[in-house]
Amino acid sequence: MNNPRENWRGRAVLMVAHCAGMVDLVALPVWVGVLVAGYGLDPQQAGGLATLFLVGAVCASLLVAPRSARLPARATVAGGYAVAALAFGAVGLTQDYTTMALLHVVAGLSAATALSVTHATIGASANPHRLFAIVGFALGVFGILYMGAVPKIVAAVGAPALFWSFAAIMAFAACVVAIGYPAQGVAAAISQQAAGRLPRSVWRVAIGVSCMALVQAMMFAFVERIGAERGFGAATVAGVLIALGFVNLLPAPLAALLQKRVNPRLVLVCGPIVQALLALSMTQGQTFAPYAVGALLFAAVMIFTHTFAFGLLAALDPSGRAVGATPAMLMIGAAIGPILGGTVVKLAGYPSLGLAAAAVAACAVACFLPHRADRAVLSHP
After folding, report:
1. CATH 1.20.1250.20 region(s) of the chain?
2. What is 200-378's CATH number?
3. CA neighbor of 329 nearest in space, from 194, 216, 247
4. Mapping DSSP to helix (H, G, I), strand (E, B) and coil, where does residue 222 land?
5. Is the dihedral of CA 244, 212, 165, 342 positive or negative?
6. Residue among 349, 352, 77, 323 at smallest CA distance from 209
């Protein structure tokens, strides 16, 4: 417990940093909705702003992850969130689309810089799998609180309140990090580790995670629309989405509990298969039960599987570069998924969306299948 990442003060700081950096996963539906309803943008313009944030985040993660061991962790994370807070605060003060677009890019670059170093720090801990499960549970709690409070604030104050809420979250994270970020940064934990070329096994896992994130985004963006198209009613679909937030509290603790009991490769191979089955359940059936089960469990599968993937990447690459690139793996899918899913739906309808998701999930399974090069890792469940 002498390692500051392994006591609850250090864990609490990393929870805050993780939640701030992953705010897009929680707020994206509200984000796009406010841009359309509150700012009068068309869906393409609104989606474009969110995509610019995600593109900035992917670029920052890819640039920062290989260099995370050489960066001053506390200053980088605190500074990244401080700049993101200023950018989001400025978005709330303008209605000029070009200015909003530029500020979204700045916010994505700065927030993902902070998040990449945060994930590299988690990856350098004594038990990355368990610590990532802890911060994942915190994100679930944060998501319930955010969705319960912020839409009401936006309705009462106006559309700019959404971006001021983002600014407040980033500013709070910057302050917490500046005061209490674990003093033993990434460099101290991995200074003796080789930093050569990443093994092929790392690239396969990273590509597999990106494929799962793509399936998650292309399906989850249309959960509400699928329910409406099936005629289930707005109140019924809203009830499913509310229940989903509570279901998402379970997979991270469950992944921590099963860490020593289940082989990570087994989880990684089964995760995309379950994703595909749930996607087909939501899109091929016409009754409520298959839709509700698929919607309730879809994000949970991603959370559970990604916790094992994070732990496996930390084991395969002790340099911390792979886990530092976690934001890029997730946000590439988040950026591509909605537009890809929308194109499939426009051309061939919702049933084809499930088939497309199953095809991408099959690619993830191919990436996750064990190879000779990493059998040593497979022998340690």
Report:
1. 4-190, 200-378
2. 1.20.1250.20
3. 216
4. coil
5. negative
6. 323
Report the half-sphere exposure of 19 (CA within 13 A, side-chain side). 27
Q: Which amino acid is at 269?
A: V
Which CATH number is associated with domain 4-190?
A: 1.20.1250.20
Place of tokens 């991603």: 302
- The pLDDT profile of the chain, 381 residues, written as one tens digit per residue, is 345 446 778 899 999 999 999 998 888 778 887 888 899 888 778 878 988 998 999 999 889 888 877 888 899 999 999 999 999 999 999 999 999 999 999 999 999 999 999 998 998 888 889 999 999 999 989 988 998 889 889 989 999 999 999 999 999 999 999 998 986 544 444 444 445 677 788 889 999 999 999 999 888 878 877 888 888 887 888 788 788 888 989 999 999 999 889 999 999 999 999 999 999 999 998 899 999 999 899 989 999 999 999 889 988 887 778 888 888 888 888 778 877 888 888 888 889 999 999 999 999 999 998 766 555 444 444
Query: What angle, rounded to 10 degrees, do the helices at 73-91 and 97-123 form?
Result: 160
- CB 5 within 8 Å of CB 17: no
Whether 129 and 259 have beta carbons less than 8 Å apart is answered as: yes
Give the 3-state secondary structure of residue 7: coil
* φ/ψ bin of 184: left (φ > 0), alpha (ψ from -120 to 50), beta (otherwise): beta
Q: 93 φ, ψ to 5°?
A: -105, 5
Q: Give the Cα separation of 130 and 8 in Å (integer).
A: 13
CA-based end-to-end distance of the chain: 24
Residue type (1 letter), 173: A
Counting every residue written for the chain, the total comes to 381
What tokens does 253 get? 């603790």
Looking up tokens 């869906």, which residue turns up?
Answer: 43
What is the 8-class DSSP label of residue 183? S
